[in-house]
């Protein structure tokens, strides 16, 4: 967010002078107490360099330049050993927490829609010792039900403590865990379950009854379905060959002396730990084969970038555990003795959709210190706060802008602004509990404006990470001391990065001012390929030294200090009729800064010479604009009104001009979508990445209408 404040007012403002006076008085003790000088030196130093001296790399972190890290704790080379090590160290401490549901109410909206609202209590905690015992009983119970070592077992469930408990039970007994996103459609779930051939499936009662029940007859290998809730379900209507169990019943089965004696076959580092199915953003989901040593190496690199990780930390888990970012983050937290409190995007804050008005959201109750987020969620927080700023009185708004600009100056110099934190940003920070000391963004590029906003208003470092399921989520992460924006940091200590020329797209290692090219990641964190899909493994390769590499399809550039910046994606690049290349991702990222836009998908094809766009508008902002234009109708009618399409297109062109998009990059038509794009709609992934194929199919009629009109014109 760029605030424009009159410079004459800044110079003579008593508040501004007070801030400078406060900084001057406290600078010397604050400078030394917070190691500000050391942090500034760390931020400016060389963080990675080429091992060959060539511009294309490979680039390695300077701290681990001679070799790549494989283990965080010596001898703990499988996931079961890692958790047992944590139990030995932190046995009585809190491990996994879940909020108690006190009541559920239905609330009818003016539109007639009914929303479920929750009244939640405190977090109930399981200690490391208690989790360890549950894992032991569950693993024995699964073995008693016929689950065999090295045979796959599937989990199709929302993020919750039982998900992680199931995963740890599988790691201990060498049951390769097949993960499926809870928001996948029935066809994709059936595809994944049949491909992996799992005989046992863990799920929730809601998913069992709403998605699985109708496709179970198609599951030719499935014998046992275990639901994790403490609820009773009707056992009728299921195929005869499939048995339905509660998780509690399986644990009780495993606690019987005879079953506790079933031999535990421990995994080796080279054994398959997880088959992680992707979200299917470009077609059917692919199962990525991840062995124990891959995950151990990847998490070793990730943990090195989180200073002070330990028992004093509380992590809030709400992103999909079937996503590699969340799964590795939670396993890493457990390894270091952190406690994990579970949440969901619908209950995260006091204003979340499922929280009854006047009740507390999960952040307010848990008060986490660590949090991971995807850019879409951060963008929402950013826009919500800025909407509230616009509703402030003139004096409040001016003070906020003044403090924002002042702190922005301080951060750019590598410093902080304690007075602003205390007086201006305390309430903003409280939205996430008030204790966040570090946030990590992953899954997609985070805009510089949103990253800087989170830095300033939430008073904590906001790091960007870059990695893929195929690299265990590990690749690069920005350091806490790095106060730049728009970059994803230097390679982690477990891997190296190099660039491959993509001449057709115009990216080479000889580009000025910085080398650019397709990003390739190599190291022990690179996974073993796609499950039963050898024909898709062309992006994996092994070099002369036996190191595995993965070609990401993303385009990056290397800064002089060795940090990586993502500049494009090969699949997002479209060649227009006149020969110009348009980066759809670049256009979308730029236009998300428009206040009227909640989400946007740019579309183009090679038969035309222009870009069109589909937009989920900001309902509050667009409704205000509609009222100003004398349009007082229902929300869906506002979105379908030609005048409002013109207004949004006008705003898009203004933003595009301010950030200097090329003429051919600016959308010439817009279609407004009254419904938000959520993973449940199938139009975005669980990490809120656009599913371009599904979006194209969804808006096909509009594409044809817009294209015909434009071509005729």
Q: What is the structural class?
A: alpha/beta
Q: What CATH architecture of the domain at 128-302 and 319-335 would you give?
A: 3-Layer(aba) Sandwich
CATH superfamily annotation of the domain at 128-302 and 319-335:
ANL, N-terminal domain
Oligomer: single chain
What's the CATH C level of the domain at 128-302 and 319-335? Alpha Beta
In the CATH hierarchy, the third-tier topology of the domain at 128-302 and 319-335 is known as: Rossmann fold
Count of beta strands: 28
Query: How many H/I helical runs?
Result: 24
Task: Give the N-to-C terminal Cα separation.
Answer: 37 Å
Globular, elongated, flat, extended or rod-shaped: what is the shape? globular
Strand content: 15-25%
Runs in which pLDDT lies below 50 for 5 or more consecutive residues are 1-12
Question: What can be said about the biggest beta sheet?
Answer: 9 strands, mixed
> Which percent range fits the helix content?
25-40%
Radius of gyration: 26 Å
């Amino acid at each position: 967010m760029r605030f424009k404040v009159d410079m004459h007012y800044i110079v003579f403002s008593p508040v501004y002078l007070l801030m400078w006076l406060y900084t001057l008085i406290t600078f010397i003790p604050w400078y030394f107490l917070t190691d500000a000088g050391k942090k500034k030196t760390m931020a400016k130093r060389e963080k990675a360099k080429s091992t060959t001296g060539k511009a294309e790399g490979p680039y390695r972190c300077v701290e681990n330049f001679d070799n790549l890290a494989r283990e965080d704790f010596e001898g703990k080379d499988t996931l079961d050993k890692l958790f047992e090590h944590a139990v030995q160290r932190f046995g009585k401490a809190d491990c996994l927490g879940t909020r108690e549901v006190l009541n559920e109410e239905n609330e009818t909206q003016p539109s007639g829609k009914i929303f479920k609202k929750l009244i939640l209590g405190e977090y109930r905690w399981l200690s490391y010792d208690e989790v360890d015992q549950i894992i032991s009983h569950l693993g024995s119970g699964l073995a008693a039900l016929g689950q065999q070592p090295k045979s796959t077992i599937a989990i199709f469930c929302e993020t919750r403590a039982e998900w992680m408990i199931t995963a740890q039970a599988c790691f201990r007994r060498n049951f390769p865990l097949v993960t499926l996103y809870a928001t996948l459609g029935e066809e994709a779930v059936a595809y994944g379950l049949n491909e992996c051939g799992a005989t046992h499936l863990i799920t929730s009662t809601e998913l069992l009854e709403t998605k699985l029940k109708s496709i179970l007859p198609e599951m030719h290998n499935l014998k046992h379905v275990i639901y994790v809730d403490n609820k009773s379900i009707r056992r009728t209507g299921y195929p005869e060959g499939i048995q339905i169990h509660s998780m509690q019943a399986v644990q009780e089965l495993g606690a019987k002396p005879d079953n506790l004696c079933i031999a535990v076959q421990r995994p080796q580092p080279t054994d398959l730990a997880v088959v992680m199915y992707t979200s299917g953003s470009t077609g059917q989901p692919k199962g990525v084969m991840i062995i124990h040593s891959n995950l151990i190496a990847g998490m070793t690199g990730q943990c090195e970038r989180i200073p002070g990780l330990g028992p004093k930390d509380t992590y809030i888990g709400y992103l999909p555990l079937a996503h590699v970012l969340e799964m590795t983050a939670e396993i890493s937290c457990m390894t270091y003795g952190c406690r994990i409190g579970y949440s969901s995007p619908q209950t995260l804050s006091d204003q979340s959709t499922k929280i009854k008005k006047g009740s507390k959201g999960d952040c307010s109750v848990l008060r986490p210190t660590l949090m991971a987020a995807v850019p879409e969620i951060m963008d929402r927080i950013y826009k919500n706060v800025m909407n509230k700023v616009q509703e402030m009185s003139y004096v409040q708004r001016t003070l906020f802008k003044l403090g924002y600009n002042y702190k922005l100056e301080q951060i750019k110099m590598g410093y902080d602004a304690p007075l602003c934190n205390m007086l201006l940003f305390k309430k903003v920070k409280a939205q996430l509990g008030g204790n966040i000391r570090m946030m990590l963004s992953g899954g997609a590029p985070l805009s510089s404006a949103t990253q800087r906003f989170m830095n300033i208003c939430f008073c904590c470092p906001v790091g960007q990470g870059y990695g893929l399921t195929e690299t265990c989520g590990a690749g690069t992460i920005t350091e806490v001391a790095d106060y730049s924006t728009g970059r994803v940091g230097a390679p982690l200590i477990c891997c190296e990065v190099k660039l491959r020329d993509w001449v057709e797209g115009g990216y080479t290692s000889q580009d000025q001012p910085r080398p650019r090219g397709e990003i390739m990641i190599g190291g022990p964190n690179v996974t073993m390929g796609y499950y039963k899909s050898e024909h898709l493994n062309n992006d994996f390769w092994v070099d002369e030294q036996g190191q595995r590499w993965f070609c990401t399809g993303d385009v990056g550039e290397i800064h002089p200090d060795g940090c990586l910046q993502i500049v494009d994606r090969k699949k997002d690049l479209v060649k227009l009729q006149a020969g110009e290349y348009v980066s759809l991702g670049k256009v979308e990222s730029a236009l998300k800064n428009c206040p009227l836009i909640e989400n946007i998908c740019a579309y183009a094809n090679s038969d035309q010479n222009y870009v069109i766009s589909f937009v989920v508008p900001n309902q509050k902002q667009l409704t205000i604009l509609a009222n100003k234009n004398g349009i007082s109708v229902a929300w869906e009618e506002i979105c379908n009104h030609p005048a409002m399409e013109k207004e949004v297109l006008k705003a898009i062109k203004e933003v595009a001009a301010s950030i200097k998009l090329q003429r051919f990059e600016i959308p010439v038509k817009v279609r407004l979508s009254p419904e938000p794009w959520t993973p449940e709609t199938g139009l975005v992934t669980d990490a809120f990445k656009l599913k371009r194929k599904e979006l194209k199919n969804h808006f096909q009629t509009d594409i044809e209408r817009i294209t015909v009109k434009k071509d005729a014109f």
